[in-house]
Amino acid sequence: MVKTTSLNFIGGTWVAGERGSAIVISPQTGVAIGEYSTPSLKQIAEAIDFAHRAQREWGILPPKDRAKVLFNARQILLRDAEKISTLKANESGKTIEEARAGLMKGIEVLEFALAIQNLDLGGRLEVSKGVSCEYRRDPLGVVAGITPFNFPAMVPMWMLPIAIALGNAFVWKPSEKTPLTPWMIANAFKEAGLPDGILTVLHGSGETVEALISNEKIKAVGFVGSTKIAKLVYTKSALAGKRALALGGAKNHIVLLPDANPDLAGPGISDSFTGCAGQRCMAAAVLLAVGKVDQHIEKIKARASSLQMGKQMGAIISREQVEFLRGAIDRAVSAGARVLLDGRQAKPPVGYEGGHWLGPTILDQVQPGSEAAEVELFGPVLSIVRCRDLSEALKIENSVPYGNACSVFTSNGPLADRVVREASSGMVGINVGVPVPREPFSFGGVNASKFGHGDITGHQSLDFWSNVKKVTVKWEVQTGSDWMS
Ligand code: NAD
Questions:
Q1: In the predicted model, is pLDDT for residue 427 greater than 90?
Q2: Which of 104, 164, 217, 458 has its CA 20 to 30 A from that of 355?
Q3: Which of 180, 181, 209, 375 to mutate to test the pocket of ligand 1 (most atoms within 8 A of CB)?
Q4: Catalytic residue among 276, 281, 387, 406
């Protein structure tokens, strides 16, 4: 396999980091597939200075001119989709279909960003005789985006296209676990004609993030990752006087009612907890099984146990994470859970024995409040909590600190509506296992799944990535004017 080297993208060129390099291991094989290097604090400061100078020109371009570059980037990303998806799958452990889907979802956000020029026309009104007020949207300047390992292209593309369409320069700090995909994405934007410095890629972990937060030229920080780090980044950014939006982890519930359509519930729930090997913030983690739903659970189990590892379900990001998941399953069993499907027994695909694998696991009789019911495990593990009625299910859903997603499977409209009203999640689905809103609807949870105001994509994101300037105008002295003229 060809090894990929991902350096730091500073001022439009690839620069080796002065703080050393590290290798990247493929979760599928356990073999080194590339390396990246981490910039020194001096290099980070210089990169931000370059971005700051470049943004002045970019920020005053008419939005339609910026959109032309984004349109070119879309064509190049589509042209290179197979290459990008293959690299992404290799470094994150995803199946090739999942890697393709993640990129396409990122491109959908780019298409939304392309449309900002036509959608966001501001507003102007004559507020009193001879006086008008109007909104104008200004870029913030240089903004930063810090991203997790589990969607190496999609999550960055939640932020990058919108931020640059609005006239900002974007500094991207990718996950140190998936640093290779950024190399291809940055090259695509360079080829598309994005001016040097409008996209910067800086590798590393906490130290690089600290350097971004403490740099006064960075005006806003977007973050996606675990709740612990999201809270840290949000707090530090706010203390530094920056606008911050930090999306955190999740423990998502699915409420399953006996009258659910079995053809929707079986595959919908199974695919939700096994997709991306459970390593997504929208994955089903807890099934709140209300009343007699064993016929549905059989279908979920049948679908999950039929998955071919490597082809239909991907690998786990690291050996340590596989160990953690195995330990969590053991602990759940010790706490009284019954194993309906045991992923610990699953065999890795032939030829991939060195990779990090765990099969789909279903635990029944999980107790509310236990680790398997409350802690984000981030793997293909579904915990079933048995509930007497919908009220009990909603009480459990509400008791978990996270608030990303909740879905209900039922044929009863009013009961579904009750779940929509009472669930303490930012994104709710009806008969949909992964209720990710599609553009132009914004993505975002509540409670411990999001720190900050607004959303990171869609309509709600425009106010995060820009300033709305209010302009009041008067050109002539008016006769017969009122108190406001
Ligand atoms: P993570 O929190 O470990 O890392 C996220 C980013 O934070 C990475 O870029 C990492 O380098 C950086 N980082 C690590 N330590 C840091 C520190 N001390 N200070 C500042 N930055 C630091 O998350 P992960 O393991 O890469 O991703 C999985 C997590 O992300 C899960 O909890 C998942 O639920 C969450 N996630 C949430 C969403 C969402 O939309 N809410 C989407 C995707 C993933």
A1: yes
A2: 104
A3: 209
A4: 281
What is the number of structural domains in the chain? 2
pLDDT band per the 50, 70, 90 thresholds, residue 120: confident
Give the dihedral of Cα atoms 424, 428, 434, 438; nearest 10 deg: -130
Question: Residue 123 — pLDDT band, cuts 50, 70, 90?
Answer: confident
By most ligand atoms within 8 Å of CB, the mutation choice from 208, 281, 324, 446 for ligand 1 is 281
Do 261 and 243 fall into the same domain? no
146 in a structural domain: yes
Over 70: is that where the pLDDT of 57 sits? Answer: yes
Ligand 1 atom at shortest distance from the alpha carbon of 146: 9
Residue 436, in any domain of the structure: no
- Which residue's CA is the nearest one to ligand 1's atom 19? 206
Distance 229 CA to ligand 1 centre (A): 6
Kindly report the CATH number assigned to the domain that includes residue 340. Answer: 3.40.309.10
pLDDT at 484: 65
Domain range spanning residue 171? 4-249+445-470
Is residue 485 pLDDT above 70, yes or no? no
Contact 143, 170 (CB under 8 A): yes
Q: What is the pLDDT of residues 249-283, one digit of tens each?
A: 999 999 999 999 999 999 999 999 999 999 999 99
Per the CB < 8 A criterion, the answer to whether 234 and 225 are in contact is no
Q: Which residues contact 320 (CB under 8 A, 6 or more apart)?
A: none
For residue 387, indicate whether it is catalytic. no
Q: Does 102 share its domain with 120?
A: yes
| Residue 451 CB–ligand 1 contact under 6 Å | no
For residues 254, 270, 340, 307, the Cα torsion angle rounded to the nearest 10 degrees is: -170
- Residue 419 CA, ligand 1 centroid: distance in Å: 29
ω into 258 cis (within 30 of 0): no
Mean pLDDT along residues 330-342: 98
Residues 457 and 419 in one domain: no
Residue range 219-235, pLDDT digits in tens: 999 999 999 999 999 99
Q: What is the pTM of this model?
A: 0.97
Q: Which two tokens stand for residue 47?
A: 């990169």
Tell whether 332 and 374 lie within a shared domain.
yes
CA 195 → CA 11, 66, 170, 349, distances in Å? 9, 10, 12, 44
Ligand 1 centroid, distance to 147 Cα (angstroms): 6
Label each residue of 227-289 as H, E or C: HHHHHHHHHHHHHCCCEEEEECCCCEEEEECCCCCHHHHHHHHHHHHHHHHHCCCCCEEEEEE
